[in-house]
Write a structure and sequence with these properties.
The protein has about 375 residues and is α+β, with helices and mostly antiparallel strands. It folds into 3 domains: about 110 residues, Acyl-CoA dehydrogenase/oxidase, N-terminal domain (Butyryl-Coa Dehydrogenase, subunit A, domain 1, Orthogonal Bundle); about 110 residues, Butyryl-CoA Dehydrogenase, subunit A, domain 2, CATH 2.40.110.10; about 130 residues, Butyryl-CoA Dehydrogenase, subunit A, domain 3. The protein contains 12 helices and 8 strands. It has a 4-stranded mixed sheet, covered by helices on one side. Helix 6 packs parallel to helix 9 and helix 8 runs antiparallel to helix 9. The chain binds flavin-adenine dinucleotide. Flavin-adenine dinucleotide (FAD) binds next to strand 1 and helix 12.
């Protein structure tokens, strides 16, 4: 394996196995009391009450210092909890972005006042975030953003449009990536990040209806919205370094290969009841890929724990992981033909899960950076570009 790309492998220590069991027990209890209902949508559902219950369990902000409401656990422990929640289809969507990337970003670059104001609320499952990066003409080429912030007395006036902003209509805050100066020669200069309260005047959130006919992402329009100086994250014009850090958190976790895990899990049971050599082989192949992704993603969690910024490894996990997520519904339709699924009652629930993930699957390889962009990052680090 290239020295430039490293995935060190380690066996899971026994204490982590105990933690896995604890999460499984928690999920069982949540289901027993009706707080968590298994859904054909997997973990993608927002459920603020469930997020608060996880906060009470100390499973949000797990790795953050206790002075900011965190629980000082390791990145690997957080990985284990996350993986178990995702595999069980727990509705973690409400707090997910805040726990995965906004909180860690604030911890690294935020002011003391920002850390104290936001991190404890995030860790309690009481403050939710969305990602304000993409714009109508700037997705892959993120440095080309045009939403601009002009310096005014006591703060900044923001004008422009963000697009595809998942969950903006359900959350409290956005981490906004914004232009505060000219692009410069490197094309990555003049960008900054702000913490934005989405209820401020001058901000309009408009729904965009997706392929499934649902309102999940949005257009967010800023019309001279005033953002006070104390909501600047890190240093003005240090935005490129900060946003690439944020993207590592966004790209490397188990949420990038578990969006359709519940469908694979159902396929496993269905193959037992409707066996054939082809079906068994296909499900076994998917399971082997799942296990490889688990190992690679665990390794990235280890690197994050050591304070590294594994850009390339994260890009690799996301590229392989999201392709895997997309392949699951494809394989499902191939091995369980429509004639069987439509006539056998055994498939009723499965069909709804399959319908949903077929409609959402095209987005898996787009959100958080497209395959082409990720492969560009990988090629560059191998000296191929
Ligand atoms: C379900 C979903 C949720 C999302 N949620 C959010 C969110 O919450 N917040 C947010 O900010 N954004 C969000 N996005 C936006 C997402 O990050 C962008 O769609 C993505 O970065 C691609 O940008 P684009 O759509 O502008 O496509 P473009 O950048 O216009 O790309 C179009 C095509 O050209 C290819 N391409 C572009 N540049 C290159 C290149 N240099 N080399 C090779 N190929 C290239 C791309 O790979 C792609 O296939 C979401 C998207 C989806 C689908």
């Amino acid at each position: 394996m290239s020295e430039l790309i490293r995935f060190s492998m380690a066996d899971e220590p026994a204490n982590l196995r105990a933690l896995r069991q604890e999460v499984r027990g928690f999920i069982k209890d949540q289901m027993a009391c009706g707080a968590m209902v298994p859904s054909p949508y997997g973990w993608a559902e927002p459920n603020a009450a469930f997020s608060r219950a996880l906060g009470q369990k100390k499973w949000i902000g797990m790795t953050w210092p206790s002075v900011y409401g965190g629980h000082e656990r390791s990145a690997i422990e957080r990985f284990v909890v996350t993986e178990e929640l995702l595999a069980a289809g727990a509705p973690i969507r409400a707090h997910w972005v805040a726990d995965r990337q906004s909180g860690p970003l604030l911890l690294k670059f935020g002011t003391e006042a920002q850390k104290q104001a936001f991190l404890p609320r995030i860790a309690r499952g009481e403050c939710f975030f969305c990602i304000g990066m993409s714009e109508p003409d700037s997705g892959s080429d993120l440095a080309s953003i045009r939403t601009k912030a002009e310096k005014v007395e006591g703060g900044w006036k923001v004008t422009g449009t963000k697009i595809w902003t998942s969950n903006a209509h359900r959350v409290d805050m956005m981490i906004l990536f914004v232009r505060t100066g000219p692009r410069g020669e490197s094309r990555r200069e003049g960008v900054s990040q702000f913490l934005v309260d989405l209820t401020l005047p001058g901000i309009t959130i408009r729904p965009i209806i997706n392929l499934a006919g649902e309102h999940d992402f949005n257009e967010v329009i800023f019309e001279e919205a005033f953002i006070p100086d104390d909501m600047v994250i890190g240093t003005i014009e240090n935005g490129w370094k900060q946003v690439t850090n944020e993207l590592v958190y966004e790209r490397s976790g188990p949420d990038r290969w578990t969006s359709t895990f519940h469908v694979l899990d159902a396929m496993r049971s269905l193959v037992r009841r409707h066996p054939s050599a082809t079906r068994q082989a296909e499900v076994a192949r998917l399971t082997a890929r799942l296990w490889t992704l688990h190992q690679m993603s665990t390794s990235v969690a280890g690197m994050l724990e050591n304070g590294e910024v594994p850009n390339t490894e994260a890009a690799l996990v996301k590229d392989l992981g999201t392709t895997f997520e997309q392949d699951i519904p494809e394989v499902a339709r191939k091995i369980f033909p429509e004639e069987l699924r439509e006539t056998d009652e055994d498939f009723a629930q499965f069909n709804e899960a399959l319908r949903y993930c077929t409609l959402y699957a095209p987005g898996y390889t787009l959100r958080g950076g497209t395959k082409e962009i990720l492969r560009g990052i990988i090629a560059k680090s191998l000296g191929l570009k």
